[in-house]
Amino acid sequence: MRIGIVKHLNARPLTYYFENSSEYDIISENPSVLVELLKAGELDLALISSIECERNKAVLSYSKQVGVCAKNFVRSVLFYRNRNESKLPEFIYTDSGSRASVALLQCLFYLEHKLTLNVIPTKAEEIQLMMKKSEGSHLLFGDHALLHTTSKDYEIIDLASWWNEVTGLYFCFAFWAYPKERPVSDELLLKSLTIGLDNLDKIIQNEMRLPTAIVDRYLRHELHYIPEEKNLKGFDLYIETCKKLNLI
């Protein structure tokens, strides 16, 4: 079985079992790449951005039993608003790795400001270089956001917190998806998560790039992996808003 694994820390509890089993062939990539491999028939299962599950539901099925979910804080999906800009930015440079995060930012600008936001998909490394020069406003996600340090020129806005403030709901960033003609059982996905959570101490200790206390809080408290009712209602509102903005 060929499985697409998201290479960021937020996915480790979901993917730990697959990564550490000899039964599976693993490809590690950003979700924006994984969805294309899935559609091309090169993968049997992949963890992809939640919006891509809906965008491609003609050819893909997906499970809402588990996923990368947040309540009112996520730490790894961050909007960096340039304080030197006197008004709301006309466009934002967005990390091209996660399409769900980009669409979430567009939805939030619409819900909060009634604005249609223009985005420029950009490699995270290029965004980080621009931010060193205090140029533009930006969106980073995953490990790029977790590990990035910024200057006083930027106001940092957590998108899960912003979504919760605007809607009163929670958010789902990613789900497991698979080709319609080759379904994958929820039992396998739940088994993988259970084993990942059983090994959470090991996952936390293996992360050397951040202080252990931050990793522990991030994986144990700021993220959760079984969607709650407010996550699913938030996902429905997100998809409805994306459709209004012609993002789906």
What's the name of the CATH homologous superfamily of the domain at 2-67 and 173-222? Periplasmic binding protein-like II
Radius of gyration: 17 Å
Strand order of the largest sheet: 2-1-3-10-4-11
Known CATH architecture of the domain at 2-67 and 173-222: 3-Layer(aba) Sandwich
What are the low-pLDDT stretches, counting only 5+ consecutive residues below 50?
none
Describe this structure in words.
- Keywords: Lyase, Menaquinone biosynthesis.
- It holds the Pfam family VitK2_biosynth.
- Catalyzes the dehydration of chorismate into 3-[(1-carboxyvinyl)oxy]benzoate, a step in the biosynthesis of menaquinone (MK, vitamin K2).
- Belongs to the MqnA/MqnD family. MqnA subfamily.
- By secondary structure, this protein is an alpha/beta fold.
- It has a domain at 2-67 and 173-222: D-Maltodextrin-Binding Protein, domain 2.
- The chain is 44% helix and 25% strand.
- The strands form 2 sheets. Strands 2-1-3-10-4-11 form a 6-stranded mixed sheet, with helices on both faces. A 5-stranded mixed sheet has the order 7-6-8-5-9.
- β1, α1 and β2 form a beta-alpha-beta unit.
- α1 (12-19) crosses α8 and α9 packs antiparallel against α10 (212-222).
- The two termini are 29 Å apart.
- 43% of the residues are buried.
